[in-house]
């Protein structure tokens, strides 16, 4: 079977030792996420499967309860620099917040990594909505959503201007409402000009930013219909911004739990959550819904008013994208809080496939051909074993179906995303 010239993009989202809260029980040391060799092992498996990118999330503060689930610790660009030295083709995608960084420093850091890796880097742009982070930076509270996205929009513009200065040699003279930057980067342009941009916000402002600037969009849709709707929204936003929509890749998160039979996959999934307390994820779900779920009856369907759109969106501090996905899941199944927590399994709101390699490949093909996704950010249940299962058993199926490459043909991450490389200029 062959398909059109559309490129299926597959990244692995490396969440510590895996997305499952019980991942540390499956053949890996609980503190492996503190060991750079753990990430190198995962990256080399991804490159063996010709995956597009190695994706690192980040939140500059504690995110999960470390007594239940190991939490990220090492700064992403430090990990990516190590991974770059042990791989040849794999893309390197690092998350950094526009709320808690400065444009010049971030532009220099990511372009330096891009040069050192041969043009394989992308920056995942986030604004940070976690309230636990603010205190680490001396803030009583995070800026509201409107301000975070206004800062993010200007931040991305400044970083891009600085990266362009590496190409042209023309100094930046930016005078905006939030940033004033004069000067140019001393770093040379990379093999792809400068890093690609990934965006992960699901709010209307986030989707507009993605359409205007991003080469890849990390989404959290749980159903095919929601995926198609979001896909069209962002592609239309790109067209309104004067961009080619084909150069914006929509990449939902996809949790994979793989077994040789469906029963084996289910048993693996159950074993990975055997030790997890019933209330795991309750604090995160409270933030997502904007309601303290401990005040609700956990065995009755969630009240309609809890699932309704918040009356004051400005006061709501969680992720609107995750909220939309989680609410849709709860409404579709008329779920209780207990059932919803079990369904989410600590994922926050990403689609999960628990089944055989064929079932995983079927989902990827269905979403890709239906126009709900250009690819996926894979979130294996446990690392590195879950990624090994995908590379060894799902990738061959995708190749046989004509959906995925047999070998790398593009050296840069931009090239692999089908994104235009900036024109190289003589630097003065």
UniProtKB/TrEMBL annotation:
GO MF term set: monooxygenase activity; oxidoreductase activity, acting on paired donors, with incorporation or reduction of molecular oxygen
Originating organism: Rhodococcus rhodochrous
Chain sites annotated for binding FMN: 58, 95, 149, 203
Protein name per the record: LLM class flavin-dependent oxidoreductase
Coiled coil: none
Pfam families linked to this entry: Bac_luciferase
Domain Luciferase-like: 35-372
Entry similarity comment: Belongs to the NtaA/SnaA/DszA monooxygenase family.
Sorted UniProt keywords: Flavoprotein, FMN, Monooxygenase, Oxidoreductase
Alphabetized SUPFAM superfamilies for the sequence: Bacterial luciferase-like
